[in-house]
Design a protein that fits this description.
Oligomer: single chain
InterPro entries: ITPase-like_fam, Non_canon_purine_NTPase, NTPase/PRRC1, YjjX_NTPase
Organism: Alkalihalophilus marmarensis DSM 21297
Radius of gyration: 16 Å
CATH architecture: Alpha-Beta Complex
Pfam families: NTPase_I-T (PF01931)
Keywords: Hydrolase, Magnesium, Manganese, Metal-binding, Nucleotide metabolism, Nucleotide-binding
Strand content: 15-25%
Shape: globular
CATH class: Alpha Beta
Catalytic activity: XTP + H2O = XDP + phosphate + H(+); ITP + H2O = IDP + phosphate + H(+)
């Protein structure tokens, strides 16, 4: 069975591949547009980006299933928080969704986001590493490495694929 991954970002690609390594799947990574702003600023927009990536990858790759992953931020009564969403689609039109844990962002990062800066740019400047989003990401930095971006998305992939297997057992084996 062929699974398309709607991104070329190494953290996201490895989250899918490493999580599902034991499954009988052929993986294809597709550069899929999110169709949302460069910095999603709500749960809804972040989820929409994940669904768009999955649907695009499924269509482009001609695969059986596809996964789209999207990171964003959302405003809450406790400040601006990281949020992450994933979507799994299949060639029968099914869509499964899942989100990851949220953590509040430091006030200096929150301030820059409100000024219109993208989190990836803020993190690159803060950590003096232009590739931070492809490695541990903001979640890795703000949890002192206890949880990386790949691990965050891996958790979401487990939720997605588990739902898919539950709903469509004949497709997953």
């Amino acid at each position: 069975m062929k699974l398309a991954i709607g991104t070329k970002n190494p953290a996201k690609v490895h989250a899918v591949m490493d999580t599902l390594i034991r499954e009988p799947l052929e993986f294809i990574s597709i550069d899929a547009p999110s169709g949302v702003s460069a910095q999603p600023f709500s749960e809804e927009e972040t989820l929409e980006g994940a669904i768009n990536r999955a649907k695009f990858a499924l269509s482009e790759a001609g695969s059986n299933i596809a996964v789209g992953l999207e990171g964003g931020v959302c405003e809450t009564p406790n400040g601006i928080m990281l949020c992450n969403w994933g979507a799994l689609t299949d060639h029968f039109g099914g869509v499964w969704i899942a989100s990851g844990a949220k953590i509040p962002l430091p006030s200096n990062v929150e301030r820059k986001l409100k000024e219109g800066y993208e989190l990836g740019v803020i993190m690159s400047e803060l950590m003096q590493d232009p590739h931070i989003r492809h490695k541990e990401g903001a979640v890795g930095v703000f949890t002192s490495g206890m949880l990386t971006r790949k691990e965050m998305f891996s958790h979401i992939v487990r939720l997605l694929y588990g739902q898919y297997q539950f709903d469509r057992p004949s497709y997953s084996h």
